[in-house]
TrEMBL record:
Keywords: Glycoprotein, Hydrolase, Protease, Signal. The lineage of its organism: Eukaryota, Fungi, Dikarya, Ascomycota, Pezizomycotina. InterPro entries: AB_hydrolase_fold (IPR029058), Peptidase_S28 (IPR008758). This is Extracelular serine carboxypeptidase. Residues 1-22 are annotated as: Disordered. One of its GO terms (molecular function) is serine-type exopeptidase activity. Residues 1-10 have a biased composition (Basic and acidic residues). It comes from Letharia lupina. PANTHER family: PROTEASE S28 PRO-X CARBOXYPEPTIDASE-RELATED, SERINE PROTEASE 16. Pfam families: Peptidase_S28.
Amino acid sequence: MELSLERRQDASQYPAHTIDMPIDHFPNNPRYAPHTNATFSQRYYFDSTYYKPGGPVYLYIGGETSGPSRFSNLETGIIQILMNATNGLGVILENRYYGESFPYNTSTTDQLVYLTTEQTIADNAYFATHATFPGIKGNISAPISPWVLYGGSLAGAQTAFSVKQYGGLLYGGIASSAVIHAVLAYPEWYAPIQKFAPQDCVTSINNIVDKFDALVAANNTEGIKEFKAIFGLEALVDNRDFAMTIAFPIGGPMNYPTNTWQELNWNSTYGSQDFFHFCSNVTNLDAPENITAVDTVLSKYSNGEAWSNLGNYAQYVKQTLLPLCDGVPIDSTSCFGTQNQTFYADTTNSAARSYLYSTCTEQGAYQVAPATGPSLISRVLQVNYTQQWCEWAFPKGKFNSIPSTPNLNYYNHYGGFNFSADRLAFIDGNIDVWLDVCYHSNDAPARYSTDLHPEYLIAGAGHHWDSYGILDLDAEPQFIEQAHLWEIRTVRKWLRSFKSWKSNVRHSEL
C-alpha cells in the first residue's frame, strides 16, 4: 500500500502552545488534600500538514520526556503515518512534570503529590475538550471529532488507561509496549537478552556473574577486591554500585549511561548497536595475550576454573565506561556511586526525579536479578537497592509521603493483564525487555483479537518499534511495514463507525 507524500511541516515550525491545565482534577479525593484550584501551563505541539475537515485528531502522549523530543513522531513516525493515511491532525502533549510542564518551580515531596496516573490521564481528557488549534477552522474537540491516542511504554499505559477511563469521550487508542501491569520486582527485564542475545556472550556474562556472586556469598573480601580492581572499579565500596556499573552495557537498574538492549531499533536513526558491540568485545577470540591472561587471575577462587572472557569484559568497561567519569572520583554520584543521600534529596525539577517518583509510588518494576537460574546481573541487585533511592529522594512532607514500596493497585486496578477497552489496540514486540509487564506478557492469558479489541505481537521487535518510520512504508523492513499497515487498517475501521458512535458526554459539558 503506497501513501502519498505531501509537503511536510518543518519541525522547526512546530511552535509551542500552552493550555492552562488544572493541577488537581480531583478536589474531592483525600489523596490530594489540601487541594489546589491553581493551574499550570502545559505545552503541546501540533501538525496540520495532512489535516482535512472531518479528519481525526491523533494525540501522542508525551511520556517521561519533553515534548520536542517526540517531534520525530510527527515528522516520520507513527503519527505521521496515521495522519497521512486518514487526513488527520497530530498533536503532542507534554506530560505534567516533564519538559517545561511543571506545576511548580521545584519538586518537593509535597509538590509531587499531583504526579499520579489518574491526574495524568485526566489531563488527556481535559486537553481533548479544551485545546485550541490556531489556524484550524471549526470545533475539533472530543467527542465532536474522533480523538485517537497513541503512546509507547509508560505513555502506552497512559494511553490505555485514558481510553478505558474516558472511553465516552476519547474515541480510541493504540497502546504500544504499554506497561499496563505493575509489579514490584522485575527480573524479567533481562529475559529477552538472556534468550535472544548472542549465546556465547550471554554464557560468558552468566558464568562471570556466578563466580562473583560466589565470592559475595562466601564474604571473600579479598577476592571481591581483586575482582573490582580488574575492572578499575576498586573505589566502589558498595558491591551493588559495582555490580550495577559492570551491568551498564546490559542495563543497570534505573540507570543507562550507555545504550543497552532496550535501545536496539530497526531504524538506525534512532537505535544503537552498542549492545552488540559490547558482546563482540566480550567474545573477542583475537584479544591480545595480556587481556586473555586476566581470565585465570582469579582461578584460585574458583577451584582452578578460568573466568572465561573476564579480560575482554573488563577491558570493555575500562575503555567505554571509565572515561565517562572524566576524572571525577569513581565512587561519587558524578560517576558510578549512588550512596549519597544529599544527591537524591535535590528538589530541582527534572525528568529523572519525576520518573523516580512515579516508580517509587505507583509503577514499581524495579530491575533485579532473577531468584533462580542464570543471571546477567549480580544477585546483590535486589529491591532494597532501588528502594533506598526512593527513601532518600522523597522524605515525608507536610501533606504527602511515599509508601514503603509502590502501591501497585493505582496501576493494576485498571485491569492489568485482563485489560480491555473498546477501540483500544495493543501492539508489542517479542524481544522487548518490558514485554512481561505488557499486554502480550508471557504471563498473560491467550485472547482473541477483534476489531474492537485488536492486538498484534511483532516477531523480532523491541520496545515500541512501531512508533518509528522513514516516510516510505514500502522501504521499511517487512515486519515493521506490516505492523504499520495493520495500525492503519485498525484505525480506518474505527473511523468508519464514528458517526454511529454514541458518546456518553453531552456537548453542553464540553
